[in-house]
Amino acid sequence: MPNEAQTLTANDAGVAVPRSAGRRTSPLLWVPTGYFTMALAYVMLTNVTAIMFKNLGMDNGRAAEYASYLILAYTIKPLFAPFVEMYRTKKFFVLWTQVILAAGFGCVALAMSLPGYMAIMVALFILLSFIGATQDIAADGVYVTSLDTRSQSLYCGIQSLSWNVGPIVASGGLVYLSGWLHTNTFHHDAGTFGPAWIDSWRIIFFIVAGVTLAMAAWHLKTMPDGAKAENAPSSVADAWFILKDSFVTFFQKRDVWLMIGFGFLFRLSIGLLEKIGPFFMVDPVAKGGLGLSNEQLGLFYGTYGLVAVLIGSLLGGMFVAKRGLKPTLFLLCCAVNIPNVTFLLMAMFQPTDVYVISAGVAIEKFFYGFGSVGFMIYLMQQLAPGKYTTTHYAFGTGLMGLCMMVTGLVSGHLQQLLGYVNYFWFVMAATIPSFLVTWFAPFHHKEG
């Protein structure tokens, strides 16, 4: 029987290989921080930038569109996956991408002082989106190849919870702080959008840079290397061959188009809400919004929303672990999509009571956290298994990114065309494809 330092794990080819020698660390030391760091970079680039663009004076259509373009790198990240297998270890890529992200966010903060800062920032954001996508591939690879199927299910609730903390910290805590700094430190008018917001957002990006660098230092000590695929490429030519082979084998999977539809459509309504939800809350009442400040927006997302999503993710993981994914997947889809009606109700009645608004946010976040667990487990256990586990898992998360990008590109323009009430009716109608693909989602692999 292998000792602790030689426990076997399955690599991308499905072959058992020994984990790296040395003392094993508990997944609780690196799974939460790893997925939080992934989410922090992703949300800062694709969501918080939209709020920042709006603060700087852009309309909803352009702010949502520009931020959504940054999802492209996350959508095509399967193209990077074979190259992550070529050099060193998956941990090596995690560490260096986090160091580069920290430096890049620091450069964004410094660029805000330069003439033509907007073009410089957008260029930096595009570069950082590709670095962030590479971090995702490597970190997912560590998770998938360091944990067996049973452990993946066991820790998936923690994984989903930790990832969901990232959006709450970024879209909640950091957005709150941007508003507080804007009004209390720099003494600017909270209701006026324009270049005056640069002062507070510069500090926010310095904070993100510091946190990301600290996470890299932590993962240097706690994260395992991750198993290397038996057929890892030794040259660029080999990498392109493997990439081609990974595409071929992916589309040879049984019922692959149903799984692709699931990966793209499961969170369709969430994609339509992702950018517009915060815009709705900060837009003036006269424009159909709720007229909240950045502080209030961050407070509702970062307090009640944070507690709700954490509880929802934990309970969702426990629920799936107890009852299994197949019998619960449609219920989890309902949990993700039906509570979006809270935005429709708030748009119709435009409540001013902070308790009503915070309750609407908490309800939506709780059920989103609860249901999202099923999506990630499905990708890991039904879509990813095979010869190229890491790459095929990246295909699945890339489909999710494609959905977020496509919906983000059109959401701001649609909202301006329809108004908030009609737009949120459209969001509810967009839940129908999610229910259909979930009902017909195939299960061909035994659950852990």
From TrEMBL:
Species: Pseudoduganella armeniaca
Gene3D superfamilies given in the database record: MFS general substrate transporter like domains (1.20.1250.20)
PANTHER family on file: MAJOR FACILITATOR SUPERFAMILY DOMAIN-CONTAINING PROTEIN 3, SOLUTE CARRIER FAMILY 33 ACETYL-COA TRANSPORTER -RELATED
SUPFAM superfamilies, alphabetized: MFS general substrate transporter
Alphabetical keyword list: Membrane, Transmembrane, Transmembrane helix, Transport
Membrane topology classification: Multi-pass membrane protein
Protein's name in the database: MFS transporter
InterPro entries: AmpG_permease/AT-1 (IPR004752), MFS (IPR011701), MFS_trans_sf (IPR036259)
Segments crossing the lipid bilayer: 28-51, 63-80, 92-111, 117-139, 160-181, 201-220, 256-281, 301-321, 328-349, 355-380, 392-411, 423-443
Main localization (coarse): membrane
One GO MF term attached to the UniProt entry: transmembrane transporter activity
Coiled-coil segments on the chain, per record: none
GO cellular component: membrane
Location within or outside the cell: Membrane
